[in-house]
């Protein structure tokens, strides 16, 4: 099965929509079966083309596929973190939300400051109450889990309380 998936990824034509569809389904299959390092690397490499595309639909599929890869092994998606962050500048609100979800999943101790900064920026910009509640929850979780030091944690939580204090869970406040 691994050989077939590798061959299909190699042969798929990314110049047409059906080629992208085949690659996407291969990536979904690769993330669903027992992990194979070479296949995961190829999948992440192919998906980077989706995420860096000008087509919003391909970007969305790329973000979804990277989210699936992150569930298997976070390191493959971390290589594409800057491309993922570029998707936050897209005017498509759905793509922004999926991208923020992916960034949340990709966060670790080494990139928490950067990711939380992006989440706080979006907390400042959005007026959607459900999205604001989700952002405050995620920022709080990341700050509690990966805070590099106490002063950063305090600054981050102060920003959250200023921007969305009414949305912070009572057990956190």
TrEMBL record:
Alphabetical UniProt keywords: Membrane, Protein transport, Transport
Naturally occurring in which organism (per UniProt): Strombidinopsis acuminata
GO BP terms: intracellular protein transport; vesicle-mediated transport
Name used for this protein in its record: Clathrin/coatomer adaptor adaptin-like N-terminal domain-containing protein
Cited InterPro entries: Adaptor_Complx_Large_Subunit (IPR050840), ARM-like (IPR011989), ARM-type_fold (IPR016024), Clathrin/coatomer_adapt-like_N (IPR002553)
GO CC aspect terms: endomembrane system; membrane coat
Compartment annotation: Endomembrane system
KW Protein transport (keyword) present: yes
Residues in Clathrin/coatomer adaptor adaptin-like N-terminal domain copies: 13-172
Domain of life per record: Eukaryota
